[in-house]
Amino acid sequence: WEYPDKIDKVYAGREGIVGILKEDLIDTSQDRRESIEALRHTPGGCFGSSRYKLKSLKENQREYERLIEVFKAHDIGVFLYNGGGDSSDTAYKVSQIGDKLGFPVQCIGVPKTIDNDYRGIDFTFGFFTAVDVMAKELKRRMEECPGGGSRFGALSVVLGDMGYFYQMCAPPRSSPRPFRRTSPLRPIASHAAPSRETACRY
């Protein structure tokens, strides 16, 4: 590691927060350095992910206490949790319960969401990947569907608060078949698909 005197091991939770609750951790120090370096060019889900959302401390304090138990068992003093606003809120609550239980953990929320709806920064990790994929899809559809000006197509995008997504992936106005956005920049109602909670037992 770059700072071996400060960082002994780096663990990853298999399937995200669910892996930590189940104490299913991946010790990345067991991997070859070449494999770790390759993560820079690997899709972000190499360790798995989940849509599992922890409830509030008042509703389910036991899950937060379980996280601290796992951190304590493996001497984990820093917790980086990537995701959207809910994930950062979870990181904050974990820091609170850690202090309360006498095992303080430095918790850092890493803004990573394709929605780009994170307050305080211009762009989140994952946003430009989504823009790149959608822009290429729009270009492909326009190339495959030539014809008269009376033809039109609809492409539905399932996101949360859209955060400039449409503007970033739309073709330039000079395009012979310009893209017209039919919904407002920030939609009045959210049409995001409901998340499916992962059954979590530990």
Structure write-up:
The structure is a single chain. The chain contains six helices and four strands; from the N terminus they run βαβααβαβαα. The strands form two sheets. A two-stranded antiparallel sheet has the order 1-2. Strands 3-4 form a two-stranded parallel sheet. The longest helix has 18 residues, at 127-144. α3 (61-73) crosses α4 (85-100). With 202 residues, the protein is an alpha+beta fold. The chain is 31% helix and 9% strand.
Helix content estimate: 25-40%
Looking across the biggest beta sheet, what order are the strands in? 1-2
Q: Mind telling me the C-alpha Rg?
A: 21 Å
The 3D shape can be described as: globular
Proportion in β-strands: 5-15%
By helix and strand content, what is the structural category?
Answer: alpha+beta
Q: Could you tell me the number of beta strands?
A: 4
Query: How far apart lie the N and C ends?
Result: 31 Å
Biggest sheet architecture: 2 strands, antiparallel
List the helices and strands and how they pair.
Elements: E1 11-13, H1 17-21, E2 25-27, H2 33-38, H3 61-73, E3 78-83, H4 85-100, E4 106-111, H5 127-144, H6 165-169
Parallel strand pairs: 3-4
Antiparallel strand pairs: 1-2
Short description:
The chain has helices spanning 17-21, 33-38, 61-73, 85-100, 127-144, 165-169; strands at 11-13, 25-27, 78-83, 106-111.
